[in-house]
Amino acid sequence: MASLLQLLHFLSIHCLLLCGIATSNQVPKPYVVYMGSSSSDSDGDVQLAESAHLQLLSSIAPSGERGRASLIHHYTHAFKGFSAMLTENEASILSGHSDVVSVFPDYILHLHTTRSWDFLEAESGMRRRPRYMHVSSDVIIGMIDTECATGPKKLAKGYGFYPEMRFILLVDGNKSNTSLITRPSGLAFLENCGRGYSLNQEKREREYGLNPSFNDKGIGIPSFDGKEFAWRDLTSKSNCNRDFQSAVSLGDGKAYRGSAINFSNLTNTKTYPVVFGKDVAANFTPTYEARNCYPGSLDPKKAAGKIVVCVDDDPVVSRRIKKLVVQDMNAKGLIFITEVERGPFDSGIFPFAEVVGVEGLQILKYINSTKNPRATILPTVEVPRHKPAPVIAYFSSIGPAQLTENILKPDITAPGVAILAATTPHPEPGSVPVGKKPSQFAIKSGTSMACPHVTGAASLIKSVHRGWTPSMIKSALMTTAILYNNMRKPLTNSSNLSANPHEMGAGEISPLKALHPGLVFETTTEDYLQFLCYYGYSEKNIRSMSKTNFNCPRNSSEELISNINYPSISIGNLNRHQTAKTVKRTATNVGPSNATYIAKVHAPVGLVVKVFPRKLVFLQGLTRLSYKVSFFGKEAPSGYNFGSLTWFDGRHSVRTVFAVNVE
Fold it and tell me: Which CATH architecture has domain 242-384?
């Protein structure tokens, strides 16, 4: 009898659970119905499509709920489709329709990365203005990331600069295409992993030609029509005011700060023998290889159970490889000594700490001066309010530009070191503590982290200034960029030296300051086409590219590229024995209609820089004024000379950085 009652009780609970699940499946939720790529933007076709979508919804709605068939959003630009409130059963039925590619839930997105945006806001010296909280929406900017990781990909969710500016990221590593999903307001990130479809092809590096597959309706990578622009190869990377540190504690009681992300189980209560790589070298291994912990350079019998110290003399062998080499020796941990701070490296549960310069030498000195040297590596701790920040990362691409030195690169700097980012959980053995699940997020560094910050800032500006072109937005970000760190000192690089424009571009982005730049330098379609002329493209190719009857200037040479109306100035060759070289710029007033700007030049000793006129007077109805800047380098030192030209009107400070190569 008891068994029968237990069975009935189990069946009743099971039935309730099943009924509950069935009921929850029939609760309408927002879904996106994807119907393929967009084919037309005409009003008539849009209305017909919307009507067809409503009929499609009505056909699957229960007879008593036909009134529920309504569209939440109608998509026509990036792709064709709509969103609506559907039950799971209705979504399943729709997914089988011949006109429907796929149906997926329209998820609510949550804020994940906050530190870098808060840091940018704090560095701007401005407080967020409430009036922007309601206008920074309904903007979609696509960023194509061409740095592909191997392995399966996942859907990552997050926010941009403000909660209204949402984005989702769908990357597809299995198909030879690029996946794109957007919301009505947001920032769309694409990772392009298709075979033969990558923007990092050698051809792109050799030429400025167009890829028509990215020029459909102005969606994708930029053409030279000024409609779109990319930031990937133009952005330098910097850290934020948050650090991840792992202390190295020696047997003599001294401790040194290390940089790392590790889940070490070592503690201060126990130390282990510590050895230099060269002292545990395998037989017949060169000292140089052992000190750098080359694969196969260490003797497992000598290294097992010890903490091994490796140096960074050879950058070809990465930190990850050194860590695997030492870990395979059954060592207790790795102390990595480098001359340049590289940012935190994720070593999983294996004890790892990176120390820089003098502190590394102190550790080696301790090893050499002690009969029985011992040490331990402590787990990572977060260090808030880290200083100095921002610092230009060691792995940032630096100028001058390879294809032409008459355009200054990089353009700008943005947070790209130790950024919390969504990731695909595919942990290696030993990367996750026992009993813990792999995280869907990781601390990452690189251009793939910096680029979205600039893109998000651009979307903020676009949402406030709807009529601005991408080049105006780019100019606003560059001319208002920050040159000082959170210690109120000039920005530095990873070697603790002052950063120059070839390392940081115009400086660190300040999204809030960029909302009110005062003046902007708009790079027009004609500028881009003239650039191609100056670079050496034929009129025939340019006309075919631009679908215009554009004529190149009679005298076209590469040095004229410096005259392109860009928010910075670069001169690849200034002959000290010739007359001054002059470039022209045209400023557009986007501030008060009546404004007077005065020029101020900051130039290195020996380089003579003159501006004419030195005053720009914008009156009602007069929004564009041109000026010239001359550079004379007779007394200037050889090589690149850096400086800036700033226009002041009492409220706005519009800075144009310049780089001049004197020969």
Answer: 3-Layer(bba) Sandwich (3.50)
DSSP code of 219? B
Q: Which residues lie across from 644 on neighbouring strands? A: 602, 657
| Residue 66: per-residue pLDDT | 56
The helix/strand/coil state of 142 is strand
Q: Does pLDDT of 217 surpass 70? A: no
pLDDT at 426 over 50: yes
For the full predicted model, state whether its pTM sits above 0.85: no
DSSP state of 97: S
**3-class SS at 126?**
coil
Calculate Rg over the CA atoms of the chain: 29
Q: What span, in angstroms and rounded, lies between the C-alpha atoms of 281 and 263?
A: 27
663 vs 226 pLDDT, higher one: 663
CATH topology of domain 519-524+565-662: Immunoglobulin-like (2.60.40)
Pick the CATH number of 26-105 from 3.30.70.1290, 3.30.465.10, 3.40.50.300, 3.30.70.80: 3.30.70.80
Res 504 pLDDT > 90: yes
What CATH code would you report for 115-239+393-515? 3.40.50
What's the angle, vertex CA 498, arms to CA 494 and CA 499, rounded to 5?
70
Backbone conformation region of residue 115, classed left if phi is above 0, alpha if psi is from -120 to 50, else beta:
alpha
Cβ atoms of 271 and 337 within 8 Å: the answer is no
Please, are residues 552 and 593 in contact by the beta-carbon 8 Å criterion?
no
Rounded Cα distance between 145 and 165, Å, is 19
